[in-house]
Design goal:
Helix content: over 70%
Order of helices and strands: HHHHHHHHH
Largest sheet: none
Oligomer: single chain
Number of domains: 1
């Protein structure tokens, strides 16, 4: 378990560095981290399913200005890990990932407060012409961000699996069924948040067409995605002014 917990911690730490030293590469999203956790724990299929489910919930969450959003990297990694380790699937991931992300958000705020001190130190080193000192002040905050996610994820998996299994076993079946139903609604909420942020109400018809295709006509998700791509191309062509 130590090795698995260590790998999970490294994955979480790797994910939190997205947007910090890797650019906005999206590797910190649950849809990417979920399969990585599944690969580490020997259940890639569940990792893909849980990662995709959590991505649908959180796809509208982003940091705007000074606002600190829920830590979807930590929530996604631990939600997927516990879903696999307890054997209960996506409903457990949904029950754990959201509160974990919110708690990790508070830790992220603390790290940002501490990192503000490094900024002032970097200014001081710059005034003194100490280039190495400035470089250290850039690297230390990155290390703190990494540890703020990697360490809690490692400890949670290493010490918390048995406790989580006991808690899950004690949860009434009706509660788990309720979480499963809620899990079906949360992706719709995630899409609603995304559309609201985009201020793109004109996209709602496409959303509902996709819903009808998937739910009522039972169209395969890949086929629905291809139809969506074709609709986007046609829509773009119709809106683009023709030359000459």
């Amino acid at each position: 378990m130590f090795v698995k917990a260590l790998v999970i911690g490294l994955i979480a730490g790797f994910g939190i560095l997205d947007g910090r030293i890797f650019g906005e590469s999206m590797i910190g999203r649950p849809i990417v981290l979920g399969p990585m956790v599944g690969l580490a724990l020997g259940d890639v299929q569940t990792g893909i399913i849980v990662g995709g489910t959590l991505e649908l919930i959180w796809m509208g969450i982003m940091g705007i200005g000074a606002a600190t959003p829920p830590d979807v990297a930590t929530g996604g990694v631990l939600g997927t890990a516990f879903a696999i380790l307890t054997g209960k699937g996506p409903e457990v991931a949904l029950a754990l990932a959201v509160p974990v992300a919110v708690l990790a958000q508070s830790l992220g705020v603390l790290v940002r407060i501490v990192n503000a001190g490094f900024l002032h130190s970097a200014d001081r080193y710059a005034e003194e012409g100490d280039v190495a000192g400035v470089a250290r002040m850039h690297l230390l905050p990155i290390a703190l961000f990494f540890l703020s996610t990697a360490l809690p994820s490692f400890l949670a998996v290493y010490f918390g699996v048995d406790a989580v299994k006991a808690i899950v076993a004690a949860v009434p079946e009706i509660v788990l069924k309720g979480l499963k139903v809620a899990g079906g609604l949360l992706p719709a909420l995630g899409f609603a948040m995304l559309l609201q942020i985009m201020s793109a109400s004109y996209l709602l018809p496409f959303f509902f067409v996709g819903f009808v295709l998937a739910v009522f006509l039972k169209v395969n998700i890949i086929a629905a995605a291809v139809l969506g791509l074709m609709a986007a191309i046609v829509y773009t062509q119709l809106k683009t002014p023709k030359e000459g």
